[in-house]
Amino acid sequence: MKMLLVEDNERVTRFVTKGLQEAGHTADHADNGRDGLFLAASERYDVIIMDRMLPGNIDGLSLITALRQSGNQTPILILSALADVDERIKGLRAGGDDYLTKPFAFGELLARLDALGRRTRQDGTATTLEVADLKMDLLSRKVLRGTRQILLQPREFKLLEYLMRHAGQVVTRTMLLENVWDYHFDPQTNVVDVHISKLRQKIEPEPERSLLRTVRNAGYMLSAQ
Amino acid sequence: MARLMRSSATTLATGYVLLGILALVLFALPLGYAWRAADNDVRLQILAEDSQRLAEVFNRKGPAGLVNFINERVGLQIAGERILLLTDVDQKPLAGNVPGWPAGVPAEPGSYTTPIELDHHPTMVTLVRTELPGGYHLLVGRDVARLAPVMTRFWYGLTAAIAVLLVSGVVGGILIRRALLSRIHSIRETVSAIMHGELSHRLPTGSGSDELNTLSVTINRMLEQIEQLVHGVANVSNAIAHDLRTPLTELRSRLEELSLTRPAPPEAFAEIEAAVADVDRVISIFNALLRMAEIDTGMRRSGFVDVNLGELCAHAVEFYVPAAEIKDITLTYKDQAGSLHASGDQLLLAQAVNNLIDNALKYTPPGGAVTVCTVRPDEDAAAMVVTDTGPGMTAAQQVRATERFFRGDASRGTPGVGLGLSLVQAVARLHGGTLEFADQHPGLAATISFPRKS
To answer: Which CATH class for the B300-451 domain?
Structure first.
């Protein structure tokens, strides 16, 4: 994916761009709001990563507002040290699609960028999801592994649906908490792991044909291989 | 003296005394005038009646009869202070107690209050002049000056009233000032002690409900809040220093050792990953503290919405059930309130209940049970209760439980930074409620209760 990073801190910039390149993405960089706005308006990006406090007259939020007003719908992830719930709401209201607070783990950032970039290309009207021989029918709410039907609790269904929608991507624990349970806080527990292992027992009766992998220091990934 | 004049109590007392005197004078002046006027009218009327009676005597008995009658009256001293004079056409006295026709008597018959010459002195008199048939003149009058002492006494009385007012005002003012000053002085002493850091001082309060007392009570409450905050900040700083020092020390030594020994890559990477984990721990403590600070400012009250507490608890229980199953603990939700709604912050209430459940699961031994209930203590209140079958808490522990970074002995070796319950308490406080613990023998019941409309 092609990404734009608007960030004035050099070390963070180097850390993020290097990480993105290693993950197979290309990243442009602007270290102030004006250049950021210019690049975002003139090039096509899959995702924009935006710091909120930028040098110069244009801060991150006004940049996002300007882009949205000009009809630019590129997904934007706000990366900011402002961590209050109110600040987060402000960021999302201005037109941001996701909000990550500093300091952050690179795995978390990458997973969220993947999810955002994928969203634009995803077909939102699909009624069935498929990963290898795991099939989910969103209308009848039936889940099949091969030919065998799997019975899931409503929340397990939602968890699996989220994983399948992001198949092939790393999904972090925080993303699961926010999107499956709607918990926008850190419960300081490993309960998500417990839910995952329970789900794993249900969808993977034979461990050798595993679909749901644990990605070290990041989260989980549901994929065919 | 200058200080006395500056005092607000003195100013007030002086002002009131002056105002009182002014009011008294304004009241007395028209009263005096009205009294004098009425008195004059009555006197004139009596004189008029008197001269009428004399005229009747004249009509019945003729001039000689009237002369006799007048002489009889003067002889009997009935006339008293009165002026009584009968003259002929030429104003030559025939009878009476005035030697001659006095100068200054108006020429026409009628009633007058006017100065005339009596014994060569100008005297203020009320006077009735009557013309009798045959050209005789009759004068009946009364010396007004004889009434002066009454008026003087009235003015004396007024002056005395003013004096009493003045004295009582000044004395009262001084007393009020002394009472007020002594209380203000004690307030000032307390406040300056507090300013010097002795936060435990409180303003003296009586049992009365006067303004100063009410103010003192309010200020005391504010002081309590401030003391709590200051101690809170001090505790937090200590706790932060203590709790962050440990991972920071580990981190520092790890990194220093790494740069000194320069181990082979696999070992180096393991060390680096451990260092990142240390940093993550520091960050999570920081986040928890910042979040609590955010809650404590009360700023989030503006974002209160209608929250379905039953749904919220059921949701939290559902979230923790798999974790409870692993520990062989039965985690259930009991709705004892029927659709319980309250105005609050959805996210914070959810986090509070999650923390309580997490805490209960941490302390409950395998085979135990954790129950979450929503209850309605009364029509205007809502409560969420998390009960466990763990070891419970001693009274001393219950007091300390919500202190930041406090961790029960049983929690040693379990993950967590010891901020969970203080966050729950901060959330309860934000909602105008409380977090309370009760020993269940065995087990512990933690209750968050708060007004439904806060």
So the answer is: alpha beta
Q: Check whether B283 has a pLDDT greater than 50.
A: yes
Nearest neighbour of B322 by CB, restricted to A86, A184, A195: A195
**In the prediction, which pLDDT does B101 show?**
78
Nearest residue of A to residue B325 by CA position? A194
- Alpha-carbon distance of B37 to A9, in angstroms, equals 98
Lowest mean pLDDT among A26-30, B80-84, B356-360, B367-371: B80-84
Q: Could you give the C-alpha distances from B441 to B156, B334, B387, B400, B444, in angstroms and in order? A: 86, 20, 11, 19, 8
Among B273, B283, B358, the residue with its CB nearest the CB of A187 is B358
Residues of B with CB under 8 A from a CB of A: 273, 276, 279-280, 283-284, 287-288, 290-291, 294, 299-300, 303, 315, 318-320, 322-323, 326, 347, 350-351, 354-355, 358, 415-417, 420
What are the residue ranges of CATH 3.30.565.10 in chain B?
300-451
Return the domain boundaries, chain A. Answer: 2-121, 128-222
For chain B, the residue count is: 454
pLDDT in tens, B328-342: 999 999 988 788 899
B413 has a pLDDT exceeding 50: no
Q: Hey, of B354, B362, B419, B421, which one would you mutate to test binding to chain A, going by the most A CBs within 10 A of its CB?
A: B354
CA distance A4 to A9: 15
Please write the tens of the pLDDT for every residue from B195-219.
887 888 888 787 777 888 888 888 8
Which CATH superfamily does the domain covering A2-121 fall into? Response regulator (3.40.50.2300)
Report phi then psi at A99, rounded to 5.
Answer: -135, 125
CATH hierarchy code of domain A128-222: 1.10.10.10
Q: How confident is the model at residue A29 (pLDDT cuts 50, 70, 90)?
A: very high
Q: Tokens 């710091």 appear where?
A: A51
H/E segment holding residue A171: strand A170-172
- Between CA B69 and CA B103 the distance in angstroms is 25
- Residue among B98, B130, B128 at smallest CA distance from B112: B128
| Cα–Cα distance, B347 to B216 (Å, whole number) | 38
Assigned CATH for B227-296 = 1.10.287.130
The whole-angstrom separation of Cα B189 and Cα B201 is: 10
The predicted model gives B36-54 an average pLDDT of 85
Residue in this structure with the two tokens 């002049």, named with its chain if needed: B129
pLDDT for residue B279 is more than 90: no
On whether the CB atoms of residues B406 and B274 are closer than 8 A, the answer is no
Distance in Å from the first CA to the final CA of chain B: 53
Helical (H) or strand (E) element with B393: none
- Residue-wise pLDDT tens digits, B427-450: 888 888 888 888 887 888 999 999
Q: pTM for this structure?
A: 0.60
Whether the bond between A103 and the residue before it is cis, its omega within 30 degrees of 0, is yes
- Closest Cα partner for A187 from B292, B372, B353? B353
| CATH 1.10.8 correct for B2-151 | no
Buried residues in A193-224 as b, exposed as e (16+ CB within 10 A) = bbbbebbbeebbeeeeeebbeeeeebbbbbbe
Q: Alpha-carbon distance B43 to B287, whole Å? A: 99
Residue B153 has phi, psi (to 5 degrees) of -65, -35
The H-or-E segment that residue A184 falls in is none
Confirm if A114 and A167 have CB atoms less than 8 A apart.
no
Average pLDDT over residues A19-32: 90
